[in-house]
Write a structure and sequence with these properties.
Number of strands: 23
Protein name: Adenylate/guanylate cyclase domain-containing protein
InterPro entries: 7TMR_DISM_rcpt_extracell_dom1 (IPR011623), A/G_cyclase (IPR001054), Adenylyl/Guanylyl_Cyclase_3/4 (IPR050697), Galactose-bd-like_sf (IPR008979), Nucleotide_cyclase (IPR029787), TPR_rpt (IPR019734)
Mean pLDDT: 82
Transmembrane segments: 199-217, 224-242, 262-280, 292-310, 316-333, 345-364, 370-389
TPR repeats: 634-667
Pfam families: 7TMR-DISM_7TM (PF07695), Guanylate_cyc (PF00211)
CATH architecture of the largest domain: 2-Layer Sandwich
Shape: elongated
Strand content: 15-25%
């Protein structure tokens, strides 16, 4: 356990670690960074004396109007003016003049983290960004808290104006570092911060859900619901403070975000106390817990007031917050001295949480400038609980995992007989939930692939050789279908029926790739002295019924539709034209805009079982690249010859197809049409002759 805990602590603090800011000290509103190396020290916090213009927007600044300076980062609260110290309400501009290296090549950026409670960034008089909308009065003001990165102009002399306004919070001004760095470094660090906070939130969510589930399994274990509530409070604080990752996912108004921040803070202390009380009721005082619950309830009611009032509690509540931690630590030490079970890891975890919480309070109050670390310490704390409770359920968890593995293997085995894609489109997550009569209407593209003259070919093989050959062939075409978002519905002897539920082009692409794989396969067969194979592929798109057919003792998934029958018939047409890939006109029309392949119209053909004939189209990319290129080159001539044939101008058609065959003697489609032209011509002569 010690080794595992050490690894977790190391992981968390490595996530929190980042390149630190170098504290620069501006004097009288000027900072000289001309000699600074941003390679060795990439982040420079622009601390020190900024020129301070109270109740003044950047556009109204006159350098001679003010000789006031404010040492940043610091709120302006209490700043001495002629008429007395400032409160947190108002607006002001802060100006700093920078001198950078004249030969600086990198793109520089300014990172401004959240300020109280809105800000605008002006560089050399130009507005570059900010958070919310600062203004001279509450009507012009929109509060917002977020970090901003702005790109600085490529010049060595820069004037930065930060315009800050606050009318809702008890404190106003710049309390976070303003950092200059290269743009890449700034963006990388801000992204890392958000990732770290997202990771911490994910861990807290997982742990909280884990203990909540444990509570439902064992209602007597009240400590589990206690740690769940505490983890939930810390999770809420994690996503509503720091980089406030909550607003990365939801458009949360400032007044809600601020209340979530305070709500999580008010309740983390009593919930933590309650958790320890449920574990060690003999050592913890119930009255102390009641006091903190009452205090948090009163403070929560205060959240109904405007923020200017309830934020004042931030100057008082930290005392109660730290006092709660100290009392818990004392009671835990008492439990440890009595050798209570689990007291030692809890004492260590609580000490870590107390130190981190104290750091966060001092950071939030601007007494120190570090970073929020309490969420990370809480993760370590709750992880100790996971380890402790994990020992108790290890045996049952092991059995559960073994059972789950068996179920996974069983599901994997079933998926080889009934594709998971089939179940998905049937609306079933598992084969166990399939029942006779389940069915759904879908529009899909159906692909049939059949080996030419397989019956004669198979008669030359033994049964074992037949199976070995078919498995070798199917091992090559099956993955291609899956890779193109399809799935095999069934094997029909040497034929394959596949469904493509998403995109028609998936089916056409799969057919072309299957023909490529078959040519490679034929090369291997030739090297072994075997005869090559040819495969015809037919494709059609239409509505179908996908469902479970059979009887209660024997069921199977199947597809029933006229579209399925038509796809099978179209595959048969490939034999008529000696073509590799033939698709229906319906499929072609739907996919033509994004087909991405070369094609040519074949003919209207009669389909068995269909009253009307069907137009079919050949995909030329199904041939080997050399033949495909030759056919593509004469495609226009082919179209003219076919048009003559359809107009029954057989002389012109014979001339056209003859020329095509002179160029491509292996063009089986042109040869078929040439034969048809001669037959039609002879028939016409006989009719007129008679």
């Amino acid at each position: 356990m010690k080794k595992l805990l050490f690894v977790v602590i190391l992981l968390l603090f490595s996530c929190l670690s980042e390149e630190r800011n170098v504290k620069a000290e501006a004097q009288k509103g000027f900072l000289n960074l001309s000699q600074h190396s941003f390679v060795k020290e990439p982040f420079v916090a622009l601390n020190g004396e900024w020129k301070f213009f109270w109740n003044t927007a950047p556009s109204q600044i006159k350098e001679t109007d003010s000789d006031l300076f404010l040492n940043l980062p610091k709120h302006w609260n209490g700043f001495a003016m002629n008429y007395g110290p400032l409160s947190g309400i108002g607006h002001a501009s802060f100006r700093l003049k920078l001198k950078l290296n004249d030969n600086l090549q990198e793109t520089m950026a300014l990172t401004v983290h959240e300020q109280d409670t809105s800000y605008a960034i002006y560089v050399n008089g130009k507005y570059l960004g900010g958070a919310g909308k600062p203004g001279s009065n509450q009507n012009e003001f929109i509060p917002e808290v977020k970090s901003t990165i702005v790109v600085l102009p490529q010049t060595s002399e820069i004037t930065i104006d930060l315009y800050i306004a606050n009318y809702v919070h008890r404190k106003g001004g710049i309390w976070n570092d303003v950092v200059i760095s290269t743009y890449n470094k700034a963006e990388s660090r801000l992204t890392k911060r958000k990732i770290n906070e997202t990771m911490l939130s994910s861990i807290l969510s997982f742990v909280g859900i884990f203990f909540l589930v444990m509570y439902f399994y064992n209602r007597d274990g009240k400590h589990t619901i206690g740690i769940f509530l505490f983890a939930a409070a810390v999770l809420l604080r994690t996503i509503s403070t720091g980089e406030r990752i909550l607003i990365e996912f939801f458009d949360v108004p400032y007044w809600i975000l601020l209340r979530l921040e305070y709500l999580s803070w008010f309740w983390s202390a009593p919930l933590l106390y309650h958790y320890f009380y449920t574990i060690f009721p003999e050592d913890f005082s119930k009255k102390v817990g009641t006091f903190f619950y009452t205090l948090s309830s009163v403070l929560t009611l205060g959240l109904l007031l405007p923020p200017i009032y309830f934020t004042e509690t931030a100057s008082i509540y930290p005392i109660a917050f730290v006092a709660n931690g100290m009392i818990i630590l004392v009671y835990l030490y008492r439990a440890y001295m009595k050798k209570r079970m689990q007291s030692r890891p809890l004492l260590f975890g609580m000490l870590l949480v107390l130190i981190a919480a104290t750091n966060d309070v001092l950071h939030a109050e601007s007494y120190i400038h570090t970073m929020y670390v309490a969420p990370a310490s809480v993760v370590i704390f709750v992880f100790l609980q996971v380890i402790t409770f994990g020992r108790m359920v290890r045996q049952s968890m092991t059995k559960t995992l073994e059972f789950a593995q068996e179920q996974k293997q069983l599901s994997s085995s079933f998926s080889r007989f009934v594709p998971t894609e089939f179940l998905y489109h049937l609306g079933k997550s598992d084969i166990r939930y399939v029942d006779l009569g389940d069915q759904v209407q879908k529009r899909m593209t159906i692909l049939f692939a059949d080996i030419r003259s397989f019956t004669e070919f198979s008669e030359t093989l033994t049964p074992k050789q037949n199976f070995d050959f078919l498995n070798s062939y199917l091992q090559r075409v099956g993955p291609i279908i899956r890779h193109n978002n399809g799935f095999i519905d069934k094997f029909i002897g040497d034929a394959v029926m596949a469904l493509f539920p998403y995109d028609i082009n998936d089916a056409v692409k799969a057919a072309v790739e299957m023909q490529d794989a078959i040519r490679i396969y034929n090369g291997h067969r030739a090297n072994c002295g075997y005869i090559p194979i040819e495969v015809g592929i037919g494709i059609h798109t239409g509505n179908l019924t996908l469902g479970i057919l059979g009887e209660h003792k024997r069921m199977e998934g199947t597809v029933i539709s006229d579209a399925v029958n038509l796809a099978s018939r179209i595959e048969g047409i490939t034999k008529l034209f000696s073509a590799r890939i033939v698709i229906s006109a319906d499929t072609f029309i739907e996919a033509s805009e994004g087909l991405g392949y070369h094609y040519r119209l074949l003919d209207r053909v009669a389909i068995k079982g269909k009253t009307n004939s069907v137009f079919v189209v050949e995909v030329l990319d199904g041939y080997d690249p050399e033949k495909a290129a030759r056919l593509i080159a004469i495609k226009d001539d082919y179209t003219l010859a076919l048009d003559s044939f359809r107009r029954e101008d057989y002389e012109e058609a014979i001339d056209g197809f003859s020329k095509l065959l002179d160029k491509n003697p292996d063009d089986s489609v042109s040869r078929l049409f040439l034969d048809r032209c001669h037959e039609a011509k002879e028939k016409t002569k006989m009719e007129f002759g008679s």
